[in-house]
Amino acid sequence: MSDNSLISLPPAAEADLVRRLQARDESAMTLFYERYSAALYGVIFRIVKAEDESEDVLQEALVKIWHAFASYDPGKGRLFTWVLNICRNLSIDKIRSRQHRVGSRTQGLDDSLTAQRQAAPTTFRPEHIGLQEITQKLIPEQRQIIDLLYFEGFTQSEVAEELNIPLGTVKTRARTAIKVLSKLIR
Amino acid sequence: MENIQDYIESGILEQYALGELSAAEQATVEAQAAQHPEIREELTQVQQALGFYAEAHAITPPAGMRERVLANVMARIAAPKTSSTLRADVDAVAQANSSTTATPAYVPQPSAAGEAVVRPMSSAPMPAAAPAGRSSWAMAASVALILSLAGNALLYSRWRDASADVVALQNDKAQFATTTTVVERKLGDLRQENQVLRSDEFRAVALAGTKTSPTAHAKVLFNAATHKVYVDVRSLPALPADKQYQLWALDKGKPIDAGVLTVATATGEGIQHMKDIASAQTFAMTIEPAGGSASPTLSTMTVVGNI
Which domains does chain A have, with CATH numbers? Predict the structure, then answer.
């Protein structure tokens, strides 16, 4: 599946990029942007759901990645995993501070589900085989849980509460869904 | 091996990958992963699966964003360099350049050039190295300061939220305590009333309405041994604000003041403890000016009853 290495760089190229960032080579940030911005922006936009705020978060994330790069340990995981987590955390912080102003978590879910339905047509890229495959392979219940966990920043307990299903069921569905995704990579 | 499988099945690796765990829990997972290759492998798979899911949702950023974001990022990661040290750096580089023209093997290039430039420390010109070192320290210090300020701002806002929550909770608690006190006092009153009503020592004396108010009806509870007197109103005509009902005990025809009835008692809300009476054969109530009179106004007698 060549599609799946579209953004995750081949190990050699990733190691090179890491070396340049560790050497504080500012020009490496441009390359970094070329390689990762679409994936990172996609995740940020899914969580934040507003273009201008997503741009702010991406910018914050890039600055943070640059400054915190010393704390990235290639031995612990891929660069993509690390930067993805930074972007997710900043995005979730963003929506939490917003929800804190607006009000309840429940309202956040309702809003987000509507936003997601509206956002889907513009964000769906037909040339992107990955998403189509995912849509076919994951059953709706699994996808809903992965979306709540990944794009809404819910904890497993919060998902259980929100969907009114046992925590054990949430854990099982999340694990199964991730297994399905793992199979799609290979 | 079995407990490793249990650990994997517990779902903690998914929680780790989704960023649900505390720093301490994260450290535990990392330690487990470092110790057991199976856990390391599983964790990598989970992370890659989520990464794949993220990639599948990639969106090409809107037009013009690349330039804006990159320009801002570049400005911010280079920002702490002041113009004077930058000037010094440039001068130093220019100087070094002119002094090393003889050796074309090393040509310092602005870092904006697309490709990576390997700069071995040994071949770096010394005059350039010193100011660069200083400015990078200055940059690091500025960044640390900015991060610290941002951190402080964040902590401050969280602290404010937290203390607002504490105040709200304290208010709730105080309100609850007040309610509890009121309820306890009412409960105490009711207990006392119940004790009086159930006691055999108290004699109930029914007070019937006189000709002027035939529907009036009240009851006196009199304890001859302890001399305690309670009054329990069933129905009495309403009074103007400047008048009060007063209870009298008649001992051998002589009226003794037993106290005035509160508005609550007069409207039948509960029983009222009156003044102690040593001895009586008859109880009666009259209407008196607020505060009561020294002797009864007999023409206003509303209820009367004999023991």
Answer: 1-103 (1.10.1740.10), 124-186 (1.10.10.10)
Please state, in angstroms and rounded to a whole number, the distance separating the CA atoms of residues A49 and A45.
5
Taking an 8 Å cut-off on Cβ atoms, the answer to whether B49 and A182 are in contact is yes
The number of residues in chain B equals: 307
B-chain CB neighbours of A77 within 8 Å are 43-44, 47
Chain B hits for A59, CB-CB cut-off 8 Å, are: 69, 72-73
Contact criterion met (CB < 8 Å) for A58 and B69: yes
Question: How do residues B13-35 score in pLDDT, each as one tens digit?
Answer: 999 999 889 999 999 999 999 99
Q: Which two tokens stand for residue B237?
A: 């005509």
- Could you report the per-residue pLDDT of A8-32, keeping only the tens digit for each? 567 788 889 999 999 999 899 999 9
A58, amino acid identity: L
φ/ψ of A155, rounded to 5, equals: -85, 165
Provide the residue range defining the domain that includes B22: 2-56
Which letter does DSSP use for residue B261 in this model?
P
Of A8, A37, A174, the CB nearest to B61: A37
